[in-house]
């Protein structure tokens, strides 16, 4: 038993000595950058805002009620038959039907804010603009006569 303990003791001493002696004397420690790379506050150039994709969406096709026909910043297009004018200047279909774009003389409401903003100083002039119109589907004419008056 004493030989086993003596053997364990010497092996433990050798292991301890090997940990204390450095393997290589040429070890170099390099300190890398600790701070992450940040972005700069300078102007990067270009237009960074998200595109709005304004313009006409549907011309000449069939649309359901509520479909947006065009979006605009200025009054490029005006609402015509069965077409509504949204708060942001968008034109939308009030009824389902065929989209027709025509060029007509405008009859403006001079009290409207969009008209004031885009046509101020042009009162009394003849202005022709494009109008979006919706031609609704033809209703059926097949009825049953129930009672004559």
TrEMBL record:
Compartment annotation: Mitochondrion
Top-level lineage group: Eukaryota
PANTHER family noted in UniProt: LARGE RIBOSOMAL SUBUNIT PROTEIN BL27M (PTHR15893:SF0), RIBOSOMAL PROTEIN L27 (PTHR15893)
Pfam families per record: Ribosomal_L27
Protein's UniProt name: Large ribosomal subunit protein bL27m
Keywords from the named record: Mitochondrion, Ribonucleoprotein, Ribosomal protein, Transit peptide
InterPro entries per UniProt: Ribosomal_bL27
GO cellular component, one term: mitochondrial inner membrane
Alphabetical GO biological process terms: translation
An MF annotation (GO) of this entry: structural constituent of ribosome
């Amino acid at each position: 038993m004493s030989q086993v303990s003596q053997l364990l003791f010497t092996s433990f001493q050798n292991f301890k000595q090997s940990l204390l002696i450095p393997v290589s004397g040429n070890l170099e420690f390099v300190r890398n950058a600790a701070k992450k790379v940040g972005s700069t506050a300078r102007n990067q150039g270009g237009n960074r805002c998200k595109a709005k994709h304004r313009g006409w969406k549907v011309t000449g096709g069939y649309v359901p009620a509520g479909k947006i026909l065009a979006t605009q910043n200025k009054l490029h297009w005006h609402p015509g038959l069965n077409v509504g004018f949204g708060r942001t200047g968008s034109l939308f279909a009030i009824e389902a039907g065929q989209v027709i774009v025509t060029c007509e003389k405008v009859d403006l409401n001079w009290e409207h804010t969009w008209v004031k903003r885009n046509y101020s100083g042009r009162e009394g002039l003849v202005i022709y603009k494009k109008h979006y119109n919706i031609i609704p589907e033809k209703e059926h004419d097949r009825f049953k006569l129930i009672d004559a008056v």
